[in-house]
Write a structure and sequence with these properties.
Elements lengths: L1 H6 L5 H7 L11 E3 L10 E8 L22 H6 L9 E10 L6 H15 L6 E5 L5 H11 L6 E4 L12 H12 L10 E4 L2 E4 L4 E2 L8 E2 L7 E4 L2 E4 L24 E5 L7 H8 L4 E6 L7 H12 L3 E6 L13 E2 L5 H11 L6 H10 L1
Parallel strand pairs: 2-3, 2-4, 4-5, 5-6, 12-13, 13-14, 14-15
Antiparallel strand pairs: 1-3, 6-7, 7-10, 8-9, 10-11
The chain binds aspartic acid.
């Protein structure tokens, strides 16, 4: 019954998986050489896999929630999209196989270091990272700040698991490879593509829990779009990125602990005390409105500042720039989760509030 069902989905990744008799096997680091003949005319693209829904499997073609994230290994994803072999020489590597909510600072460092290592080689022209949608914006922004190359780095993901009817993963992966190998993608900072759209890591965010059109660049727009196998770029990100930032992770073994504390009616101060007691070196406040601190939040912030913890005011609103206020660092237009990423990296080079503010203003 199950086999019959899979046969009906002849065009989907699920069908490819089922028909090839796939049994999920995940190793910490699997190198997969493309089965195609390497062509000197095609760009060499390394796909680094981290898990997520794009590698997720459910028990039926209509299961789009409650499936198993990160179940398929990178070789299966690559084999399922043979069309990629017509546009690039592909290699695959499994970095981790996790739901993206489990991407830790250590995984970020491992991924960033591996990308810099690969891009330093003349044999690699671009990188694609497959990732879960929930935190892809955080990883993308981290890489946007630490990758030291102009070569394209493109993250992609999927809202529907690989076994779903009309799974979005295969085409998103194809488009990511197309972008990573395209001359016009160079020097634009780290890119994210889903749904035929090209976004800059600085502005893209997940705006919906389940629909396939979940990613928006609120206020700032997409960088471009992909039509009929060709990227069209219309905008540039104004902020500095990649080679334009001072963050060098090559020697960093551990990133500082930075926590996010939400602001809301009747919020207590003890979240600040807990963060400080547990070793936070930085706190981002996801405050209401224009980064407005309630009197309780202000008490908490003052407590943290007194203990030498760096505090950044951000906003929970979802769009807009937090206006500067004397005596506080503000996150510019970075949402709290991206403000956390920048603060972790900032604290690896300085704890001077003015310098940290200048990072928020520039990156
Ligand atoms: N929870 C999944 C993840 O972020 C969601 C997804 O990939 O769409 O890994």
């Amino acid at each position: 019954m199950k086999k019959f069902f899979h046969c009906l989905m002849a065009l989907s990744l699920a069908a490819t998986v089922a028909l090839s008799g796939f049994t999920p096997s995940i190793s910490a680091q699997t190198n997969v050489d493309a089965k195609n003949q390497q062509s000197e005319e095609l760009p060499n693209i390394a796909i680094l896999a981290t898990g997520g829904t794009i590698a997720g499997t459910g028990s039926s073609s209509t299961q789009t929630t409650g499936y198993k994230s990160g179940d398929l290994a990178i070789d299966t994803l690559i084999e399922a999209v043979p069309e990629m072999n017509e546009i690039a020489n592909i290699s695959g590597e499994q970095i981790v196989s996790v739901d993206s909510t489990d991407i830790s600072n250590d995984i970020l460092l491992k991924l960033g270091k591996r990308i810099n290592e690969l891009l330093a080689s003349d044999d690699v022209d671009g990188i694609v990272i497959t990732h879960g949608t929930d935190t892809v914006e955080e990883t993308a922004y981290f890489l946007n700040l630490v990758v030291k190359s102009d070569k394209p780095v493109v993250l992609t993901a999927a809202m529907r698991p690989a076994t779903a009817m009309s799974a979005d993963g295969p085409f998103n992966l194809y488009n990511a490879v197309l972008l990573a190998g395209h001359e016009s993608s160079k020097g634009k900072g780290v890119l994210v593509t889903l749904n035929d759209r090209i976004s800059g890591a600085r502005h893209i965010t997940k705006t919906n829990t389940t629909v396939t059109d979940a990613f928006k660049s609120v206020e700032n727009g997409y960088l471009g779009t992909i039509v009929a196998g060709k990227p069209y770029y219309y905008n540039k990100v104004a902020q500095l990125h990649t080679t334009g930032t001072p963050f060098n992770i090559s020697k960093i073994e551990k990133l500082p602990q930075v926590d996010i504390i939400y602001g809301y009616q009747n919020n207590p101060t003890y979240m600040y005390e807990a963060a400080v007691e547990n070793g936070a070196e930085g706190i981002v406040v996801a405050a209401p409105g224009d980064g407005t601190l309630s009197s309780k939040s202000l008490q908490g912030v003052e407590y943290a500042l007194d203990k030498g913890v760096t505090v950044v005011r951000s906003s929970r609103v979802g769009s807009g720039t937090v206006s500067p206020k004397e005596g506080f660092i503000t996150s510019d237009s970075l949402n709290p989760q991206k403000a956390r990423i920048l603060l972790m990296l900032a604290l690896t080079v300085t704890d001077d509030p003015e310098e940290i503010q200048s990072f928020y203003n520039q990156y």
